[in-house]
Amino acid sequence: MSYSPPSPPQEIPDDVVEMLNEQSPEVLKHIAQYAEELAEHREREARLAEQDEEEQIEDRPEDRPDDVPSKATITIKEINDNRYYYWQWREGEKVRSKYKGPVSPDD
Predict the structure, then answer these.
(1) Distant-in-sequence contacts of 46-55, Cβ < 8 A, 24+ apart
(2) Cβ–Cβ under 8 Å, residues 80 and 93
(3) Which residue among 53, 64, 74, 106 is least packed, with the fewest CB closer than 10 Å?
């Protein structure tokens, strides 16, 4: 074991290093344990968010046109007693729609 204090990694902000230097060995051990648990939690959350994103990508219909955003949903509109599918999504305050096709009588 070295008799000189360790050098902090450059990634740690100076104010955090100062705060750590003021702590007792017992508090530093608690901080280290908390930091490890927090890092694991954030990594797990990032993995779950990535999995959710991948699942959403898999759930997208294959027939979605390129100019229709991935967040669009399919809605049915009735016009002159005929039913039609439309892609629908929100852009800011506006709701946008794009024609998809007629609803078949079997649906």
Answers:
(1) none
(2) no
(3) 106
Residue 9 phi/psi, 5-degree rounding, is -60, 150
Instruction: Quick: pLDDT tens for 4-27.
Output: 889 999 999 999 999 999 999 999
- 82-85 contact pairs (CB < 8 A, 24+): none
* Structure confidence by residue, pLDDT tens digits, 42-54: 888 888 877 766 6
Residue holding tokens 């027939």? 63
Domain boundaries, the chain: 14-59, 73-102
Task: Give, for 89, the enclosing helix (H) or strand (E).
Answer: strand 82-91
Look at the block and give the residue holding tokens 């530093």: 28
Q: What is the 8-class DSSP label of residue 3?
A: S
**What's the DSSP call for residue 85?**
E
| Phi, psi dihedrals of residue 68, rounded to the nearest 5° | -105, 125
At 31, list the tokens. Answer: 């901080």
